[in-house]
Design brief:
Elements lengths: L20 E7 L5 H13 L4 E5 L4 H4 L5 E5 L3 H4 L5 H11 L5 E2 L8 H9 L4 E6 L9 E2 L5 E5 L1 E2 H6 L18 E4 L1 H6 L4 H8 L10 H4 L9 H14 L3 E3 L1 H9 L6
Parallel strand pairs: 1-2, 1-9, 1-10, 2-3, 4-5, 5-7, 8-9
Antiparallel strand pairs: 6-7
This protein binds zinc ion (ZN).
The site of zinc ion has 4 residues, from loops.
């Protein structure tokens, strides 16, 4: 593989001739079903294909529609106390056998996980953040795994204290534009991560947090959900197309799916 951006098999995803393609991804982070369904319904309404990294069995992801590709979102900081990296990934693959990629919770990713991911047949990882970095590119590692970074995230946007304005998100420069959102932040429409923490503080198992309680924390003013939707609408106005990470990984690996 050449090191020249324009010669890379992934170059059609690099926005080299202006803004052309963007990826929407999401980390489930043990959000309750109704929060995930709320986010997926909104993305579907906007006709946005999304790569969704699952943490646990969820009806809406097991039976995901054509606009969703499911990847894995394991938490190595907990899982590796009980099993191997391969076991951790296989447990999620048993639920989502179609998954071809992963992003680790809190981006906790290392060589042992990369090696295990390749061994269980995954094609890519997206556990690295390159915050608003122009010229973000993919590469294939020594295990044959395609490595992506993501360039914007709803939670980090709040953590940086950036204006709640999608115009501050870079879509114009060359490079991969991989956006990442979280169903709970999206559902709650948070402004800061403290908003999320206040809402989830009393639950040891977030997956079963009742709607009647969590919905009381939903922000009705302008929040990060509005920024996300505004960002998607902006990309649409710029005539950017929305792609799955699977497709860019396949391009990097020159995989041709059997018809
Ligand atoms: Zn996570």
């Amino acid at each position: 593989m050449t090191t020249q951006a324009s010669g890379s098999p992934v170059s059609s995803f690099y926005n080299l001739s202006g803004p052309e393609v963007v990826f929407v991804t999401a980390d489930i982070d043990w959000a309750p079903d109704y929060a995930v369904e709320f986010m997926l319904a909104k993305l579907e309404e906007l006709h946005v294909p999304a790569t969704v990294f699952a943490t646990h069995r969820q009806r809406s992801l097991v039976d995901a529609g054509a606009l969703v590709r499911v990847g894995l979102h394991p938490d190595p900081t907990r899982a590796l106390a009980h099993t191997t990296a391969t076991g951790m990934l296989q447990n999620l693959l048993d639920i989502y056998p179609e998954a071809v990629g992963l992003r680790c919770h809190r981006n906790f990713f290392g060589q042992n996980i990369a090696e295990s991911a390749a061994a269980v047949g995954l094609r890519y990882d997206a556990s690295h953040v390159s915050w608003q970095l122009p010229w973000a590119q993919a590469f294939v590692d020594q295990f044959g795994l395609v490595r992506f970074s993501y360039t914007w995230e709803d939670g980090l946007h709040c953590d940086f204290g950036l204006p709640l304005d999608s115009d501050v998100v870079d879509l114009e420069t060359p490079g991969l534009k991989v956006l990442n959102i979280h169903p709970l932040l999206f559902f709650l429409n948070c402004v800061t991560d403290d908003d999320r923490r206040a809402a989830v503080r009393s639950y040891s198992d977030l997956t079963s947090a009742p709607y009647s309680e969590l919905s009381q924390h939903v922000r009705h003013g302008w929040g990060i959900r509005d920024v996300t939707i505004s960002l998607i609408e902006r990309a649409r106005r710029m005539n950017m197309r929305f792609a799955f990470l699977d497709d860019a990984a396949d391009a990097a690996l020159n995989v041709t799916e059997a018809l």
